[in-house]
Amino acid sequence: MEPTAELKTKLRKLISEVIPEGKTEADTRFMDSELDDLLKESINIYDAASKGWTLKAALLQDEIGQTEQYSIGDESYKKINLQTAISSALTMAKTYADLARKGGSGIILNIAPPEVL
């Protein structure tokens, strides 16, 4: 796909990487050039989103690390569970991969055919 400003904006929404108000692309996990690459390598926007979520799953290891809870003085912090975060990202990747295979119709049905006697 040929990257456009509109496609990059839509892709940022699909992978939950919208640029925060008053910030720049550097304040997200993906630079615009990386989104361009995802779009160029993809058959449709949902394929690009699937690849983006897969990359996010890989990035979570460094972002979250192994520490789940720590304290500083009287304050205590608990991080999101790494496995839960990775699992969620990979679930989103699969959802968008399914949409990409269906041509982006937006309909994902997993209906078993009726049993015929």
Q: How is this structure best described in words?
A:
The protein has about 120 residues and is mainly α. The protein has one domain. The protein has helices at about 5-15, 30-40, 45-65, 80-100, and strands at about 70, 75-80. It has a two-stranded antiparallel ribbon. It is flat, with a radius of gyration of 18 Å. The model has no long low-confidence stretch (mean pLDDT about 85).
Query: What is the H/E order?
Result: HHHEEH
* Principal-axis shape: flat
The radius of gyration is 18 Å
**Low-pLDDT runs:** none
**Sequence of strands across the biggest β-sheet:** 1-2
Domain module tally: 1
Overall pLDDT level? 86
| N-to-C CA distance | 46 Å
Q: Strand count, sense and closure of the main sheet? A: 2 strands, antiparallel
Q: Helical segment tally? A: 4
Counted beta strands? 2
Which structural category do the helix and sheet elements fall into? mainly alpha
The percent range for helix content is 40-55%
Strand share of the residues?
Answer: 5-15%
Oligomer state of the chains in this structure = single chain
Helix and strand arrangement:
Layout: H1 5-14, H2 32-40, H3 45-64, E1 69-72, E2 75-78, H4 82-101
Antiparallel strand pairs: 1-2
What's the short story on this structure?
The protein has 117 residues and is mainly α. 50% of the residues lie in helices and 7% in strands.
Core attributes:
mainly alpha, 117 residues
